Amino acid sequence: MSTSSRESAIVIGAGIVGAACADALAARGLRVTVIEQDAIGSGATAAGMGHLVVMDDNEAELALTAWSLALWRELAAGQAQRHEYSNCGTIWIAADEEELAAARAKAHTLASHGLACELLDPAALYAREPALRPGLAGGLLVAGDGLVYPPKSAHILLGRARTNGATLVAGSVVRIEDNGVLLADGSRHQASIVVLAAGSRSTTLLPELPVQPKKGHVAVTDRYPGFIRHQLVELGYIKSAHAASGESVAFNLQPRPTGQILIGSSRQFDTIDLAVEPRMMRRMLRHAASFTPGLAQLNLLRCWTGLRAASSDGLPLIGPYPVRRGLWLATGHEGLGITTSLATAQLLADQIVGAHSAIPCQPYLPSRFDKPARAHA
Ligand SMILES: Cc1cc2nc3c(=O)[nH]c(=O)nc-3n(C[C@H](O)[C@H](O)[C@H](O)COP(=O)(O)OP(=O)(O)OC[C@H]3O[C@@H](n4cnc5c(N)ncnc54)[C@H](O)[C@@H]3O)c2cc1C
């Protein structure tokens, strides 16, 4: 589909994904209106850990995360402090021989895609992260991973979009129409393109989407610079992230540039109640302290929850969705939406203006799911 530079776009949602889409579309000359019902970057974007991580569960996930990581490094270049960006890298922790075999397989995959990584034997692991409990089998250091403070990055991206002419409307979209939206105050906004980037709330507007909320708990400590130096994630995290039902916790510890330690994370289906659950928090903290025992001595400052928008096949939905004329989706990013926001925005904008993308768009197209009712297919 080709577009003139005067084409207009509405973006529903100013989380990291909506902000990135607004930025990419405005940069291509579209007249962009962002509609947000709350504060900028206040949804899952505010709750997320901001870990920028290459994931390799399948080729499509690897392609999207690796490209997006490269875009983040470009974006943060020269302005790391504004994004609270750190190129700390990830160490995937192998608790036993079975997980070490998984680390080796992961190293092979990443290396074959040109991504820098290093297998760590126990001595090398403890030299890098002395706070880890004794007896671990080793680890895998993925050097290109990093972290940002997501709400700040959302503000920066939206600010860039506004510099390129985008406008922000405070309001709640209650209906998506052909080439437009209806707001709760009764007003209508029209545009040739409507991008739904409403995170876990996307199904409020399109209930048939194969996306469901996955609740997560996170906690943050006081400042303890040097307690850990890399993002630490147990290889068992992958099992937890893949679960399609029930509850799970996984060890995921992040050294914030402030010296604080961000502790994650949990996964729960079948709830949209954002209340912190002491039971889940206890389980998550105990599990984290089983990897880094010194954690139990640190002061916790705050804990919170958020809702990931989990698609049924684990990949986001990026592309046209013609149940309404002009409608496009950028949603379903589950626990990777901070990482993949920038590549999502480029993929979406490239499709809209008919440009070639750095990676194929097919694996992420909403059309991969059967949709019985396509009014304007
Ligand atoms: C506990 C937890 C930890 C995470 N950790 C990481 C991590 O380390 N790394 C990573 O990459 N990802 C992580 N994620 C995932 C990441 O946070 C999300 O994938 C990402 O923030 C999704 O961004 P979004 O813009 O799609 O959604 P959101 O941030 O939820 O934004 C959607 C916006 O749309 C607005 N909106 C919704 N409905 C309407 C409407 N009808 N009208 C107007 N506005 C509307 C909302 O108010 C909101 O601001 C984590 C998530 C959680 C919950």
UniProtKB/TrEMBL annotation:
GO terms for cellular component: cytoplasm. The keyword Transmembrane does not apply. It holds the Pfam family DAO. Keywords: Oxidoreductase. PROSITE patterns: PROKAR_LIPOPROTEIN. InterPro entries: FAD-dep_OxRdtase, FAD/NAD-bd_sf. Gene3D superfamilies: D-Amino Acid Oxidase, subunit A, domain 2, FAD/NAD(P)-binding domain. Residues 9-350 form the FAD dependent oxidoreductase domain. One of its GO terms (molecular function) is oxidoreductase activity. This is FAD-binding oxidoreductase. It comes from Rugamonas fusca.
